[in-house]
């Protein structure tokens, strides 16, 4: 196996047969919450989703999938040839971890990103030329760029970002006007005479990982935070993922108060509600 795969694959143990194991993520392993990091330089660009449950041996919750049992069965077939030992396995079938369905949570629209300076990690910088994420040492998430339009603009003027990486929402005087996207190829906006002198704001998102299916424009898109921790992106109209996994260790037990914050990029939905369920939902199908 090592001659073909080398160090490009990791097999996790599910049997606590040694007291040398510690409860912590292995160094360098990509997370399934937050934004993570990733190479996004392949063309044509196709963004990845937050969850890895669609083809993983072990789910985000630590449950075993059919792929896990297929791997285990294959390893057992070659146990003698490669001197693999299964004697330390403490369970023939490790148990799935329990999930909780806490029901619906009512939300309320609070503030615009333009009126909430506390959501930004750093103080604003003033530069003549827009700086890249790398120069700003921002390796995931969002950067908001702002400037004022010239007092004079010619007829048929166009605002273009030829190489947006990876998605940009364009605002004029804090009103959304266009979405530039690396995956869709949209990268220009026609300007009008009435746009003279307006404040130009461009919210750029680094979408990170490369996948195999293109993302399209959706009507609801954003990020979920629970008790200050980033749980990942949601984009239900694009899919295939319509739920996010929340580790139980990030929730506060009663009488503690849990805080749910949603950054919605497209529009405020009519129904301000989110539901905590005990099943994951990918491709409109309940799994686990």
From TrEMBL:
Q: What molecular functions are annotated in GO for this chain?
A: hydrolase activity, hydrolyzing O-glycosyl compounds
Sequence ranges assigned to domain Glycoside hydrolase 35 catalytic in this UniProt record: 35-77
The superkingdom of the source organism is Eukaryota
> Which parts of the sequence belong to the Beta-galactosidase 1-like first all-beta domain?
130-224
Q: Name one GO biological process term.
A: carbohydrate metabolic process
Q: Which InterPro entries match?
A: BetaGal1-like_ABD1, Galactose-bd-like_sf, GH, Gly_Hdrlase_35_cat, Glycoside_Hdrlase_35
| Family (UniProt) | Belongs to the glycosyl hydrolase 35 family.
Name under which the protein is recorded: Beta-galactosidase
Q: What is the lineage of its organism?
A: Eukaryota, Metazoa, Ecdysozoa, Arthropoda, Hexapoda
